[in-house]
Amino acid sequence: MVRSKVSSKKQQNRGVDFKKIKRKIGRKLPPPKNATNTEIKSKAIILPEQSVASERAGLAVSKKGLTLKELLQQTSHHNPKIRKDALIGVRDLFLKYPAELKLHKYAVMEKLRERISDNDRVVRETLYQLLKSVVFPSCKEDNQGPFISMMMAYIFNAMTHLAVDVRLMAFKFFDLVVQHYPSSFSLYAEKILQNYKDILQKNQFYMQDKGKLKNALAGLVRCLSLLPCKTREVASSLEKNLSEQRVLHAFEPDLPEDPAGFDLIIKKLRDLVPVLISCFHEFIPLVHGTMHLDAQSFDCMLYILQSIDLAVRFFVYGTAKSGPGSCSSIHPYEGPDMTMWDQDVSPVVLKKLLAIFPLNPRHGFSGKDDARYFILNVVITVIFLHSSEWNCPPPDLLEIFLEFIENALSGKTSSEAELGKAFCEKHLLSLLPFIPKIVSKVSRNWRLRILQAFTEAFKDSNPESLVKLACLSAIEDMLVPRHGIPSFDASDPEILGHEITWIRELPLLLIMLGDEHPSHSKVVLHLQLRLGQCALLNSAVAQEYDNMQYQLLEFYCTCLDERSMHYGPFIKLSRDSQELSVCCLYYFSHLDSSLLKSIAFCCLCDDLEPFMLFRIIEVLHSAYKAGHVQIADHISFFITLLSRFRVFPEEIYQVVEGDKMSNRGIFKSVTSVVSSCLLHMGEDSLVFQILEEPILDLISLRTPIDNICAMLRVLLLLDSRPTRLSEQSIVNLSNYLLGYLIDVASSIPEDDDKSTSSILANTCHYYLRPCFLLFARSEKFLKNTLDVMGSFIAENGSPPLSSNCILNANDHTTGIRAVVEILILMHKDVKILRILSSFKSEIANILQNMLLFQLYVFYKNGENMENGICCWQDGDSGCVVKSNYYNLQDDKVAVIFQACNMVARMPIAGQFIAVTAQSRDTADEVTGNFYTELLYFGY
């Protein structure tokens, strides 16, 4: 008991190390005393701009704010999505800032070319679209040589990549390069063809992906199409390759200077063609199987055949070594390669490819399958025809192809019945160029069958179709002799019948084409011209060519009546086509008058260019010299031009020379050209005798002033001194000519402007000179003309003259004024003035009739009047006369003619004439006048 009390006391005296704190439930514990304070306090700092933004100020950035340098760096990122986005950003930046591409194109291409072998398909496709849509089009005008060279090494690297997708895509990239820089193929042809051979030989993987194979084959077709496959293309190809290669490798001097050349290309093609044929045979099971031919397989087969065709064409036309049955050498290259072609490639083509012709599936097929097999058969036929230039095919094989060609031309194939005429015509274009050589080499039986089918295709095709153009080209090769194509036997009536059918279709085709298809019309006119140039005289072809002119009337112009013209397509064709048409006229052995009339109406059309008008005159005159135009028809053509040419404006006195709205200058040139032609037509007297009557008949009609002047000038050019005009012609012409003189004189404007006086004087001289020359060559003509003037003035009735004497005078007074003006102009001419001294009585009669007419006018009006009128007066005074009328007593009248100065219009002292007369109520029975007791007082 005692021990226990002691122990409890000791426990009460001990100290407490940790005080226990009692916590209430739900209260938050306070932080420990050694806890770290993590509270952060901050204040906003306001800056005028950010440093990153200031560094990019003025730089071209993409939509995401990245510069070109940053985008190019991201194209090498390990993440394919970032690489793709970077390429898209480059595209957007170049579209927004085109100048960036111009400045950094080499740096850009150096970075982008790394993506050609990218493992990601989307990245490669994005790069392809970037190059196709932005980079290449923008750099097309620049020097692309270094630009393309930077890509080729990476493209070739991609062509040998382990991944098949990358290899096939590499050919797609190269196809893009060839599209924008075609010469790149010839520079790298050896490597490209070798890579194509390698990729096509490994058919175990590409047959599963025909879409990519199709793209590669399309690129091969594009490359082979750049090879020279025509005679004229081969000669310049080597020189062109060398010059372009130097430009292309301007920044890579380590490359060889000489291009590959045709020898290396031939070797590679020799190895490639059998591979292509083997590749084509891989698709043959689809033809004989039960499945339809799908679109991708068809495209692959078509591209393979097209590649073989281009290779064969290059072998045949791009080399010179001749094989059996081939044409002459066309290229300077000679070597052992063509022997290899003859021994290795030619048997493969004949045995493996042509032996499967035609491609006819064993199962039933739809319309699409029918069309596809027809297209493939056409391409195989083209390959056969090209290879036939080198080797003569076996007769049984030739029969098979000739039958297919005949059926295709005549439309006997099932394709035309099911797919339509337009589809078959489209694919006939490749066969039609071979028709001339086919019909020249086959037997007569097959020749007639092919010609019959060809003629049907020619007649049935649409005028504006490409088939019609191809047929025209083939017809030219068959009708116009050329090197390498022998001409047909002209004595064979069946062959001649086909030729006549072709020729008769030409003018009808021109009319159907109209002016809506100028390119087609030009081809027809070119063929027509070649026929005219090559047709033998008096041959059947020449006779058909001459008969063609009657069908061409509608092509030029048809005259419905004297005032209604229906112009054909000739007027609206281009100058080149019009030139061809006009040149064809020369080769008609006899130009009919109806065709000349039609052409003359075309010359009168305002829409015809002046150049073509003069060209027509030149060609027709050359045809006349060659004996193809009768002299009467030729002269009639010229008279039609001069008499019916419409000159505008009708006002002959133009203040401004060379007015663009006038064709008077053109008509003057036409008159000069026609005059020159008439001078060289033969004896002047004979030509004058032919021209005399029709020209006088035309002058007697209401012909415009310019046309009368032109005909008078032509007539005087052939006339002599004294004149060759007959007595009756002189009488008739003097009656008709006064109207022309009055029209010319009455058109003279009253203009005192000295700046235009010389122009008016020259114009007046141009129109009056023919009449003055006639006066000088025939005094009888002058006397008759003066008598007609006096008779005209004496006519005081209404109308004063018949319509044959005065043309455009409004009234008698205006005509009298014009007569006075004519007398003044005659007085100013020195030669005419000398002749006029012999005709004082005629001139006095004119003056007397003039005075008496004025007295009659005054009496008829019955009142004082004042009327100024020009009158012929003393030769040295140079004056005009002003008349004053006065009423006198006992029904007498008087008139005083006062001489006035011509410039100042002031009276001249002491120079006047006074006339008085007694008026009558009725006309005198003898003289027909209304006056008597005529008295003169002169000073």
Oligomer: single chain
Bin the strand percentage. 5-15%
Uncertain residue ranges: 231-260, 320-340, 797-810, 862-882, 885-890, 901-905, 908-913, 925-939
Nearest-integer average pLDDT: 77
Tally of DSSP β-strands = 7
Outline the biggest β-sheet.
5 strands, antiparallel
Strand order of the largest sheet: 3-4-5-6-7
The end-to-end span amounts to 201 Å
Range of helix content: 55-70%
Radius of gyration: 50 Å
- Envelope shape: flat
Secondary-structure content class:
mainly alpha
Q: Count up the helices.
A: 42
Give a short overview:
The protein is mainly alpha-helical and 939 residues long. The chain is built from 42 helices and 7 strands.
Write the layout of secondary structure elements.
Layout: H1 2-13, H2 51-55, H3 68-74, H4 80-96, H5 98-112, H6 121-138, H7 145-159, H8 164-180, H9 183-187, H10 189-201, H11 203-206, H12 210-224, H13 231-234, H14 237-248, H15 261-281, H16 284-288, H17 295-317, H18 337-353, H19 367-387, H20 395-410, H21 414-419, H22 421-428, H23 435-441, H24 444-460, H25 466-479, H26 493-513, H27 518-534, H28 540-551, H29 553-556, E1 557-559, E2 565-567, H30 575-586, H31 593-603, H32 610-625, H33 631-644, H34 664-679, H35 684-700, H36 705-718, H37 727-746, H38 754-777, H39 779-794, H40 812-828, H41 830-836, H42 840-861, E3 866-868, E4 879-887, E5 892-901, E6 907-919, E7 931-938
Antiparallel strand pairs: 1-2, 3-4, 4-5, 5-6, 6-7
Helix pairs in contact: 3-4, 4-5, 4-6, 5-7, 6-8, 7-8, 7-14, 8-12, 10-15, 12-17, 15-17, 15-18, 17-19, 20-24, 23-24, 24-25, 24-26, 25-27, 26-27, 26-28, 27-30, 30-32, 31-33, 32-34, 33-34, 33-35, 33-36, 34-36, 35-36, 35-37, 36-38, 37-38, 37-39, 37-40, 38-39, 39-42
